[in-house]
Write a structure and sequence with these properties.
Distance between the termini: 66 Å
Strand order of the largest sheet: 1-2-3-7-6
Structural class: alpha+beta
Protein name: Sensor histidine kinase VirS
Low-confidence stretches: 395-400, 437-441
Keywords: Kinase, Membrane, Transferase, Transmembrane, Transmembrane helix
Organism: Paraclostridium sordellii
GO molecular function: identical protein binding; kinase activity
Largest sheet: 5 strands, mixed
InterPro entries: HATPase_C_sf, NatK-like_C
Shape: elongated
Order of helices and strands: HHHHHHHHHHEHEEEEHEEH
């Protein structure tokens, strides 16, 4: 049976299936799926059949590994919510671990049974033993690997630092594998060297995973620290504004008699109207309090309304966010602060009196969706590039970044972002499905 080509073809197919299922499990553990289960499984089955076809055609091991990494990365980025960098890192690490375990397992079996490494890798019972051991250890390693989750993102700079040693280790393992296969003599020293090198590379791989985990954890902590600082800054601004408004109210109350005396001494109705208008303007500037059901949004709206008053922008809000309590505070902050900042910047560009400057924010509930409409007047030109919205050259980076941040947050909650605009208006619509338990309340 061990001399049958059909038997070994079945063994190779079975081994390949285990490897693909293992990396599929890894993808599902460390990342969130963005396609339907049906689409996900169909594309995975297509990958399996593609590799079965490659298995029938005898391809060089280096080319086969390269195809495995590229196809896995393409499948990963299409079906899961991951960045391009992460879609490369995970398959590279998986390939590195897989190669290391396979060579190490074969080397250990060669030492125990006192046979040549190349004999273990040929069609023999030792080969079956090596496959069983290596795939079992690989599965355990994936469970260990999944423990880290790797839920953060890696910067381009960190990617270069990590990618170079990973690729180097893969090349070394392939070289060791090819060298060991070509050995014709049964030499214990050679077997020890193979096991030693494989062990070092495996230890190196484990430390690489730990380093990547630390990088991701540090990046996540930095982001959280930044968001906390922004949150504290917003709260400080809000409380300072409240204190300032209280001071103004006390001052107005104290000066009310003087205002009445001044109004009584004015000669014309126009003068009275102008004087009363100035007082109303001052009173309106103090009325910046909101009650949306979300404290963070209340603070943001109060801060942004003050900016709008200074820039003569009509700011209207009709918000009830009580049913969005499942959305993270930081995410709410990113959505509203970015959207309103973009709207204010667009209004500030309007220099003509013929176009009214306004920002309107409305929240409605349709079926089981929360619909947030943020509309503003504009005069600047807006372009679309590869499905992304950009404005004029001076601020396209910041505006594009704000819209991108909003889309990323909304995608987290399986929502949608829609953008409509004409020559004078810009409308941003955000639809977030409400969790069933929240909706029933």
């Amino acid at each position: 049976m061990l001399n049958s080509h059909i038997f070994w073809d079945l063994v190779h197919i079975f081994t390949l299936a285990i490897e693909l299922i293992t990396i599929y499990m890894l993808f599902n553990t460390v990342s969130e799926r963005k396609t339907s289960i049906k689409t996900n499984l169909i594309s995975f089955i297509l990958i399996i059949f593609m590799f079965f076809a490659f298995n029938i055609i005898e391809i060089n091991i280096s080319i086969r590994i390269g195809i495995f990494i590229i196809s896995s990365s393409i499948f990963y980025i299409i079906n899961y919510r991951v960045s391009f960098i992460k879609s490369l890192i995970i398959p590279l690490l998986f390939t590195l671990i897989l190669l290391g375990i396979e060579i190490l397992s074969a080397g250990v079996i060669a030492l125990i049974n006192e046979v040549n490494f190349s004999f273990v890798m040929n069609y023999s019972m030792y080969r079956i033993e090596a496959i069983i051991i290596s795939k079992s250890v690989a599965f355990i390693c994936v469970l260990y690997f999944s423990y880290f989750k790797l839920s953060g993102e890696i910067s381009k700079k960190d990617f270069v630092y990590v990618c170079i040693p990973v690729c180097t280790n893969i090349v070394i393992l392939i070289t060791v594998y090819c060298y060991a296969i070509d050995l014709s003599t049964n030499n214990k020293i050679n077997n020890y060297i193979i096991v030693f090198i494989s062990s070092l590379l495996m230890i190196s791989s484990v430390f690489l995973i730990a380093i990547i985990y630390k990088i991701l954890k540090d990046n996540k902590l930095k982001l959280e620290h930044k968001l906390i600082k922004e949150k504290i800054s917003l709260e400080c601004t809000y409380y300072m504004q409240v204190e300032s408004n209280h001071e103004k109210v006390r001052s107005l109350y104290h000066d009310m008699k003087n205002h009445m005396i001044c109004i009584g001494n004015l000669d014309t109705i126009e003068e009275v109207k102008k004087y009363v208008g100035n007082i109303n303007l001052e009173l309106n500037s103090m009325n910046n309090s909101f009650n949306t059901g979300n404290k963070i949004v209340d603070i943001i709206l109060s801060d942004k309304k003050s900016i709008c008053i200074k820039n003569n922008i009509n700011f209207e809000c009709f918000l009830d966010l009580s049913k969005l309590d499942f959305v993270d505070m930081n995410d709410i902050c990113i959505i509203f602060s970015n959207a309103i900042d973009n709207a204010i910047q667009a209004c500030q560009k309007i220099k003509t009196n013929s176009l009214k400057k306004f920002i309107s924010i409305k929240v409605t509930y349709v079926n089981s969706f929360c619909v947030i409409n943020i509309e503003n007047s504009k005069i600047n030109k807006i372009l679309s590039k590869k499905g992304n919205i950009i404005t004029d050259k001076k601020d396209k980076f910041h505006h594009g970044l704000g819209i991108k941040n909003i889309k990323n947050i909304v995608n987290k909650y399986d929502g949608e972002v829609s953008i409509k605009f004409d020559d004078e208006k810009f409308l941003l619509t955000i639809m977030i499905p409400i969790k069933r338990s929240t909706f029933l309340h």
